[in-house]
Amino acid sequence: MWTPDELVNFVARVLYEVLTHGLTLDYAFQRVARGWRRLKSFKVFYDVAFDVVRNYFLLRHLAARLFGSEGAKAVVRAWFVYRAEQYFRNKQIVARYRKRLLKRALMTPEDALKSVEELRRDTITYLSVKYSYHPAIVKTLVENLGAEEAERVMEAGNQTWMWLRINTLKADVDKALRLLEREADVEPHPRLSFMVLLKSARKPVQYLTAVRELVAVPQDLASVYAVLALEPSPGDKIADLAAAPGMKTSLIVQLTEGRARVVAADVSAARVARMRGLLKRLGASDSVEIIRADSRKLATRRFDKALVDAPCTSSGAFTKEPAVKVYPRVSRARHYGALQRELLANALRLAERVTYSVCSILPEEGEDVIAGIDAAAERAPAELVPAYRGPGGRTLPHVHRSEAFFIARLARL
Ligand SMILES: C[S@@+](CC[C@H](N)C(=O)[O-])C[C@H]1O[C@@H](n2cnc3c(N)ncnc32)[C@H](O)[C@@H]1O
Q1: Domain-by-domain residue ranges, the chain?
Q2: For residue 369, which of 348, 350, 352, 351 has the smallest C-alpha distance?
Q3: Distance from the CA of 358 to the center of ligand 1, in angstroms?
Q4: Best substitution site from 24, 240, 267 to test ligand 1's pocket, by max atoms within 8 Å of Cβ?
Q5: Is pLDDT above 90 for 15?
Q6: Which residue is closest in CA terms to ligand 1's atom 15?
Q7: pTM of the predicted model, to two decimals?
Q8: How far is the CA of 264 from the centre of ligand 1 (A)?
Q9: Does domain 221-411 have CATH number 3.40.50.150?
Q10: Same fold: 162-218 with 221-411
Q11: Which atom of ligand 1 is nearest to the CA of 359?
Q12: How far is it, in rounded angstroms, from Cα 131 to Cα 242?
């Protein structure tokens, strides 16, 4: 059995790793767990770490008011005061520990919460604390969407939507749905027959029979919209130029029933190896040629269509990856922007029509990249909301119940 002190120490270490090294939550968790003598309550500790990181800025504000400290341990203690009750069945342990923590508190938890409203004068700080997003994310959203819509994005972004794609290369939709419904409650997408939203399940998603048999695969709706924007058709020659680990490639194969010729390229040898295995297991490898290549330089081929699902800050992944809210890598946007432009420019040399997508809320990786490219912009898919400016479109969590992507279609001049 774990003790509250052990939980606080463990989660504080995970938080520290995320804050100082910008690690993803899973990576930070594994790193801390490896050094821990015996981690028995893996799921409890993981869920708490996730919630602490997701609510970091609010908890940090509350920790400063309650305990006079913004350190990682104080932040996790604040979590215990405000959020532990909904996580544990043993309410007595929570009540006892909470009482112990509050003995040293500088004010009541209610007054600490009220103090958030005092920040209202400064919109960025107020929204950053209220919804727990790094001020740089808040600033970008407010500048590009206005405060009201930015607030809706952030509020919705504090939920996770788990979409499953029925892998019709392995089973038909009805059979897959029957299998899923034995263990989970799912809501079909209103228009995409192969997409369902997981509402609740009796087991973690990776243990669902349909998922283990790869009849259903977790894939965010935004990622699916990027592939739909490409309009892959049987007979097409298609290049997926930043393809690993192959989720979008496998959807291209699924949508064309294996009747398009697909080249899937990626620069990373390790990720190419992973993609090879994944495509095989998904039943998508027969019509795909996998190559390891730097797609900025790939020169020998001609394609009808190309997808550039570019490397990026992943600043749009906050619904699933809470570390992004704390450590958004905004300063890397310029580096990625240069790489994205080069990938896109070469894609337009290789193919007539190009779809460009990034999981990012930063215009430096979306609208600004497209603005500098010598190509004709095609109409954005109707499902998307308008881009911040100019061509292309976006997915946003409060509209699509998905991650935040920028997606644009371009045609060679
Ligand atoms: C966002 S991920 C792609 C995800 C993938 N499309 C999917 O849906 O599974 C971006 C990928 O770009 C690859 N990459 C980065 N620079 C590249 C380059 N110059 N040429 C080709 N691939 C590159 C990375 O290795 C990474 O796998």
Answers
A1: 4-120, 162-218, 221-411
A2: 348
A3: 10
A4: 267
A5: yes
A6: 311
A7: 0.95
A8: 10
A9: yes
A10: no
A11: 1
A12: 33
From ligand 1's centre to the CA of 39, what distance in Å?
34
Q: Name the residue at shortest CA distance from atom 10 of ligand 1.
A: 311
Q: CB under 8 Å, gap of 24 or more: what pairs does 227-232 form?
A: 227/251, 227/252, 227/255, 227/307, 228/255, 228/381, 228/383, 229/355, 229/357, 229/380, 229/381, 229/407, 229/408, 229/409, 230/305, 230/307, 230/353, 230/355, 230/409, 231/305, 232/256, 232/260, 232/305
Write the single-letter amino acid at 60. R
Closest atom of ligand 1 relative to the 268 alpha carbon: 25
Q: CB count, 10 Å around CB of 214?
A: 16
Pocket of ligand 1 (CB under 6 A): 223, 242-248, 265-268, 271, 294-296, 309, 311
Rounded Cα gap, residues 225 and 101, in angstroms: 47
Strand pairing category for 376-377 and 406-411: antiparallel
CA 111–ligand 1 middle distance (angstroms) = 48
Residue of minimum CA distance from atom 13 in ligand 1: 242
Q: Quickly tell me which residue has 């799912």 as its tokens.
A: 186
**Digit-coded pLDDT (tens) for 397-407:** 999 999 999 99
CA torsion angle 111 114 120 124 (round to 10): 90
Annotation: CATH topology of 162-218: Alpha-Beta Plaits (3.30.70)
Measured in Å, residue 311 CA sits from the centre of ligand 1 at 5
Write out pLDDT tens, residues 175-202.
Answer: 999 999 999 999 999 999 999 999 999 8
Kindly state the DSSP code that residue 378 receives in the 8-state scheme.
P
